[in-house]
Amino acid sequence: MTNLKCDHELVKSEIKGVAVERCSKCNGIWFDRDELRKAKDSTDEDLRFLDFEIFDTKNKKIQKGESSCPKCGTKMETLEYMNSGVKIDRCSSCHGVFLDKGEFKKIISFLENLIISKSSGEYLKDTGEELKEILTGPEDTISEIKDFLAVLNLLELKIQAEHPKVSEMLITFARSWPIR
User: Fold this and answer.
1) Are strands 29-31 and 63-68 parallel, antiparallel or unpaired?
2) In the chain, where the domains are located
3) At 23, is the secondary structure helix, strand, or coil?
4) What are the C-alpha distances in Å from 85 to residues 55, 111, 125, 127?
5) Contact (Cβ atoms closer than 8 angstroms) between residue 63 and residue 77
6) Predicted confidence (pLDDT) per residue in 126-168, tens digit
7) What is the pTM of this model?
8) Do residues 20 and 14 lie in contact, with contact meaning Cβ atoms separated by under 8 Å?
9) Each residue of 39-59: b (16+ CB within 10 Å) or e?
10) 30, 75, 162, 164: most buried, per Cβ within 10 A?
11) What pLDDT was estimated at residue 2?
12) CA distances, 24 to each of 1, 13, 27, 117 (Å)
């Protein structure tokens, strides 16, 4: 495969156990279908529930890209990853994604900051949504359960940080509970 952006060969590479192709010149990264999500999930378990459906066209400003897909030759499209400021290239035909050098790290950094900024109320809402996705979500059931457990863990941590007295009371109650 050749990166049609800079006309150089894409070579096999790996991000956190996910096989990808990297441009030998510009260090851009090609992700086949669903590999970007898998690489994001394996980079930080806490991020796994933050899914951005790149090929769901609702409420997305999609622009025609300048380059063609290195896999199938279709004209690429450009859109912003969430509200991160990172413009990604996607192929609507084979569902591959191309990120320029450093964009994967920028996406991860954006998501980590999003995790930090969420309130316990937002995590409570996210927990309910992830619980629903166990039955109706786009990923397999095991993956959806892992997403639910990740957000549940973050909810617990946020409650401990925002409401330490409530957290202490719950711990005391749990320790004195007769049924184990």
Assistant:
1) unpaired
2) 1-116, 118-180
3) strand
4) 18, 12, 25, 26
5) yes
6) 999 999 999 998 889 999 999 999 999 999 999 889 988 887 8
7) 0.85
8) yes
9) bbbebeebbbbbbbebeeeee
10) 30
11) 64
12) 11, 10, 6, 37
